[in-house]
Amino acid sequence: MNRWTRLRGSFPIFQQVHFMETAYYNPLAKEVRAAIAEFYDSVQAGGGPRSWRTALVDARAAASALIAVPPDRIALTKNTTEGLCAVANAVPLGPGDNIVTLAFENSANLVPWLHLRRRGIEVRLLHHPAGYALPEAFRAAVDRRTRVLAVSLVQYYSGYRANLSALAEIAQRVGAYLVVDGIQAVGAMDLNIDRLGIDALACGGHKWMLATHGTGFLYCSGRFLEVAEPTYLAEEGLAEDTWPDRLVPSQQANRFELGNENYAGFVGLVAAARLLQGIGLHEIEKRVLELTDQLIAGLDRARVSLVTPRDPKQRLGIVTFKITGADAFVDACDRAGIRVSLRNGAVRVSVHAYNNQDDLVALLDLLDSHIATVA
Ligand SMILES: Cc1ncc(COP(=O)(O)O)c(C=O)c1O
Q1: SS3 for 352?
Q2: Spatial separation of the C-alpha atoms in residues 138 and 186, rounded to whole Å
Q3: Residue 51: per-residue pLDDT
Q4: 180 forms bridges with which residues in the sheet?
Q5: Angle 350-356-358 (CA atoms, 0-180°, nearest 5)?
Q6: For ligand 1, atom 14: residue with the closest CA
Q7: Closest C-alpha to ligand 1, atom 7
Q8: Hey, which of 21, 24, 80, 110 would you mutate to test ligand 1's pocket, going by the most ligand atoms within 8 Å of its Cβ?
Q9: Residues lining ligand 1, Cβ inside 6 A
């Protein structure tokens, strides 16, 4: 059995369904479920705080390894939104400063920035008809009052993969921070965040990372930690040995952590990371791109209009296309046991390493029938 068949075997859903909705959520690996169940068994048996603490240490290590950063740069969060909110409220900002982001970002990466308008912060929203975040648009929009560039590594709708090194260079030239929403990439991409010059990256575990809802993390660069002031500060976020005499935030990213965590979820996240690392992120990214290449070739044969760029450097696991009757097609997929998503009136297919050619063929066959009926 090859490694992809073995990976597929971890997900019972593939016995019944062609699941291509990882950009929405992942269908829970047996190993992740077992790790969570074992954790709760231990709680029921009176398992103690020491193992809870270990779960968090392991989860920070697992998350940091997925993006190649040191574990002390990771704060555990419950989702992407929490990480982005923490960053938006920790960056030093004053009236007249501006933030540059994209009008078509997921709301998780818009609302926290737009909420800063009440403090006199300008939010510059870039528009692009196809939903791309091209570096040139950022270059033209920034000035010396720009404090933040906020962008998704992979766009949830178009699937466009941002050029992070180009954006980091633009941010650094004006002294701004580059803040990244990583949820549509981490777990499916071989990332070396330290090398890319990103200041913060927020991610949730329940999509490409193969963990569950209620798990996530926030990466903070050393440069960002030098200035980041947490809005919420709790005992977990204090430098050791300062409490109760003084309130000194931790030097590490865990200054953003608050109270008891989702221990079971993080045990699951560690099991999920083990599944991914057992194969290797380089191999996973290669497989995802091979499958999406095949999918795009099939979509081209069907002559549908692609929203996602063709250049493999500009995409990852999401492929979105437009067809007449997209909603009826997604319903027909559902009835045929093919799971894809309807986003902004287009069909969004998300392909992880656990998908295979059978999944693609099933989708493309149904697409041919759909096109024949609406033509
Ligand atoms: C790009 C992007 N950011 C954020 C989110 C929401 O993330 P979370 O629920 O982890 O806050 C989603 C999808 O749900 C998304 O696609």
Answers
A1: coil
A2: 23
A3: 85
A4: 151, 201
A5: 105
A6: 24
A7: 80
A8: 80
A9: 79-81, 106, 108-109, 152, 156, 181, 183-184, 204, 216
